[in-house]
Amino acid sequence: MRQKNKTVRHLKNEKLEVVKPDFRGNKTVDGQFMNGTELYTPELSNVLRWKFSRNPQREEKKADRFVPRVTYGCDFVSSPEDMVVWLGHSSFFIRVNGVTFLTDPVLFDLPMLKRRVGLPCRPDKLTGIDYLLLSHGHRDHLDDRSIKTIFQHNPDLKALAPLQAGDLLRSAEPHLPYQEAGWYQKYDLTPEGIAIYFLPASHWHRRGAFDMNKVLWGSFLIKTPTMQLYFAGDTGYNGHFEEIESLFGPMDVCLMPVGAYRPSFLMQKSHLNPHEAVRAYNVLRGGAFIPMHYGTYDLSDEPAGEPVRLLEQIAAAGMVQGLRIPAIGEQVLLRDLV
Q: Which of 240, 313, 332, 335 is deepest in the core (most CB within 10 A)?
């Protein structure tokens, strides 16, 4: 279909179930995915404004020496317990019903972007991984070296990814099996007793000069008969949280991004600040709130420790009941959260 000289299509994986009634698929305009009905492209003028303006928190950021705590060791890899282990940034080791997931694995320094804090154990020690959950294609979430390393030491690994992510995955590791899904679709590669849904996020995509919004982005729900764990991916605040809650009800565990939100004129449509993350969590009627996307890489203008300080203030005011701020490598047992 063409609309005002633009090609409009709705895409989904035709082989997978769609769980939202009357959802036609993800809307694209001239091949670019949209945030629902809005096409979002970060404006170059805002990027230049950020790069060439003085950060009003410059001195505060410079003086802030915060780095996340690290609990060293690989005991969580061999433990039989169901758990969540933060590995830094948006990378989590998650075991549910004995099945192990790794979200957005970025385990090394990135080009021009070094990790500010290490891993609890060497990447090659992360074994027994069944599935990669890849929320989107930005380089701080889909890292070729990390994917190659994990696949090398987990030969039965499969990836669950967004629509049109296949070329990125084949480039990273040609032999990695994967399945793509659109929003509100249920992957069919998971074992009985665990359902994985790809759900909306408010974000965007770009890795190169000519691929703006060519790959979808989103969030994940890991669902069992007794628990719902939500991984929000990268997202701004939008109406998708209400839609997710209306379809699935309360979330027992919410892994929520809380960093890279300043300057707001550039970041607001694609990242959550701590107040927005708590608002989303409350819309989702969340149980445990575990923050991510802070402290590991320097991506924005806020001081490194500000997200944690704000979360602690918000919790002290009674606005988030289930806040857990684990160290990198700390085992957070699901039986203690649900």
A: 240
Distance CA 229, CA 201 (A): 16
Q: What is the topology classification, in CATH, of domain 2-10+25-32+62-336?
A: Metallo-beta-lactamase; Chain A (3.60.15)
Q: Starting from the edge strand earliest in sequence, which strands make up the sheet with 131-133, in order?
A: 178-181, 158-162, 131-133, 99-103, 92-96, 83-86, 332-333
Instruction: At 66, give phi and psi (nearest 5°).
Output: -60, 135
Cβ neighbours of residue 309 under 8 Å, at least 6 residues apart?
A: none
Contact 133, 87 (CB under 8 A): no
Ranking 48-62, 73-87, 121-135, 273-287 by mean pLDDT, the lowest is 48-62
**Position with higher pLDDT, 178 vs 56:** 178
Three-state secondary structure readout of the chain: CEECCEEEEEECCCCCEECCCCCCCEEEECCEECECCECCCCCHHHHHHHHCCCCCCHHHHHHCCCCCCECCCCHHHHCCCCEEEECCCCCEEEEECCEEEEECCCCCCECCECCCCCCCCCHHHCCCCCEEECCCCCCCCCCHHHHHHHHHHCCCCEEEEECCCHHHHHHHCCCCCEEEECCCEECCCCCCCCEEEEECCCCCCCCCCCCCCCCCCCEEEEEECCEEEEECCCCCCCCHHHHHHHHHCCCCEEEEECCCCCCHHHHCCCCCCHHHHHHHHHHCCCCEEEEECCCCCCCCCCCCCHHHHHHHHHHHCCCCCCECCCCECCCEEHHHCC
The domain limits of the chain are 2-10+25-32+62-336
When the pLDDT of each residue in the chain is averaged and rounded to a whole number, the result is 95
Average pLDDT estimate for 306-315: 98
Model pLDDT for residues 130-182, shown as the tens digit of each residue? 999 999 999 999 999 999 999 999 999 999 999 999 999 999 999 999 999 99
